[in-house]
Amino acid sequence: MFDRILIANRGEIACRVIETAQRLGVSTVAVYSDADAGAKHVAMADQAVHIGAAPPSESYLRGERIIAAALQTGAQAIHPGYGFLSENPGFVEAVVAAGLVFIGPSADAIRKMGLKDAAKDLMAAAGVPVVPGYQGADQDAGVLAQAAEKIGYPVLIKAVAGGGGKGMRRVDRAEDFAGSLASCRAEAKGAFGNDAVLIETYIEAPRHIEVQIFGDGRRAVHLFERDCSLQRRHQKVIEEAPAPGMTDVMRQAMGDAAVRAAETIGYSGAGTVEFIVDARDGLRADRFWFMEMNTRLQVEHPVTECITGVDLVAWQLRVASGEDLPARQEDLQLSGHAFEARLYAEDVAAGFLPATGRLAHLAFPMGVRADSGVRSGDVISPHYDPMIAKLIVHGPTRAIALRQLSRALAQCQVAGTVTNLAFLGALAGHEGFARAEVDTGLIARDLEALTELAEVSAQVVAQAALVAAGLERMTGAGVGFALWAPLRRTILLGFGGAELSVVLMSRGPDLCEVELVDGLVRAERIDGRWRFDGMAGHAAFQEGDMVTVFADYGRAFRIIDPLERAAGGAPEAGTLIAAPMPGLVRDVFATVGQEVKSGDRLAVLEAMKMEHALVAVRDGVVAEVLVAAGDQVDAGAVLIRLEEPEDAA
Ligand code: ADP
């Protein structure tokens, strides 16, 4: 076994590798960019080396710097993780040339599987079924169109160098072929620097089933299959193992094909052979075809670890350090069912736009495997993948594991950024998915229902207002806010695009009536815990002006400062009438729409046993009255907002 390895990656996969290395007593070296100096993977590793600026092209993709870091720290081997340099044969050669071990396959094996067309040819020659189509060297548009005609529409145009779901176009009609080909080529050229394509028959409503293999350069075994059919735009969202409905015959056929694929190229380490499956008549041993092989550890490898009990990273380190395959095929057993959900910082409502931000709070439920590269306080930077974590559950049956997944998602606490939690929760609760009716089109078909946001409940808004007012934090007997806090207080909350005005009315030390636009919520503290209309409050988190109530996968509210709200920028002098000190509003004379002159009395504030008249310091029209007689207000609280006469509607 190695004494020390370097992990040429960041985020959750770097942390994942470091964890296993530590368990095996292997010392670890992290590398990091400017953006990651304080990252979790750096904190976890025994040593860390700075390798450049935040953009991957200036750090995590700089093979020469990474190799130099390994040599400088005395690391014997480099683990590439996934992404970045993990499938770059040139990097593998450079690592080996530097006298280091690459924890993964040979450059030759990576090259053989690197381009989809060559890989398909190789696999077909080895007797592995491949998706019918054209993968010739002649890339003339006319030749390709003819090939599409021969295959029969619909067809799929695929960039031979494609990956990550990019560089693919489905074409339904001959008249659309030329246009789709041009756009696919342009995308492939931009993303992969290679615009060669292949044409395949498009399989309707297919399933994506992949087989985990592991080789030692001579022999290979498979560790059963994963079903990754739940995809959005060809990107995996929830993965599971084993594949629902898998039969022994089909598993044997797919496993054999995958092992043959691996042994054909003398594969060493962990790899995945991806198949597309036509499951219209159930899973049949003659209806699966090789799509591609990923010559690295996959994001979704944990579900395989759950059902086999194998630590794939431990196997990677053992085999790379010269050990034989740790198990024979007959030693490998499949147990139970596992799911993995990919939690991302992304704005689902805005079309799954990657989001950034500081994770003000991050907590995962107990009893769930959460592979994560970030902690509370960490930043999701725009430079890298916005993944927050992978949540992995393992149960004795699929139904139980799915319930565990639902529960785990509901109990995740993320504050500080938008996430796809609610979307994942909706998927985990999807009836077709529960019945294992999965195919790659499921998400697209039901996207609207899956992304529909449940309305926020009055009780959750009431809780957010209580948190905003600081009342939730006050604990212990007798800390009634009536003693010293205002009796009646208006809280303004921004939620989505809306602005909610919430009035808190104290009715005693442990009782508060919360008035919303459309009703009243009774908040009562029993045994130190607030209940809202009799229902227990949720966990909640506040930082700065953001309050997150961990209900419905997290509801975030922004506390609106009336000053800022009234202003919409820097307020013009004299437009805001604010309380000069904390006090009780005795009287309000102003009404909305009223024209006032400089010097007019607008309200009376009682403070420090005196009455203070609040007067207009300029002419204007009353735009808003934010308080009523009887309100307690803090110093600086805006009571009335004026606007120019011509601004008035
Ligand atoms: P990438 O390398 O970009 O991940 P893949 O070849 O693995 O591309 O394909 C990604 C996804 O695209 C598959 O999981 C599947 O959902 C879909 N797909 C690929 N080939 C076909 C096909 N011939 N017919 C229908 N869908 C396909």
Automatic annotation (TrEMBL):
Give the signal peptide range: none
Q: Keyword set for this entry?
A: ATP-binding, Biotin, Ligase, Nucleotide-binding, Transit peptide
The entry lists its GO molecular-function terms as: ATP binding; ligase activity; metal ion binding
Instruction: Name the species this protein comes from.
Output: Puniceibacterium antarcticum
Q: Which domain of life is it from?
A: Bacteria
In this chain the Biotin carboxylation domain maps to: 1-448
The cofactors required by this protein are:
biotin
Q: Where is the ATP-grasp domain?
A: 120-321
Domain Lipoyl-binding, by residue range, is 565-643
Please give the SMART domains that the UniProt record associates with this protein.
Answer: Biotin_carb_C
Question: Which Gene3D superfamilies does this chain map to?
Answer: 2.40.50.100, ATP-grasp fold, B domain
Protein name per the record: 3-methylcrotonyl-CoA carboxylase subunit alpha
Report the Pfam families cross-referenced here: Biotin_carb_C (PF02785), Biotin_carb_N (PF00289), Biotin_lipoyl (PF00364), CPSase_L_D2 (PF02786)
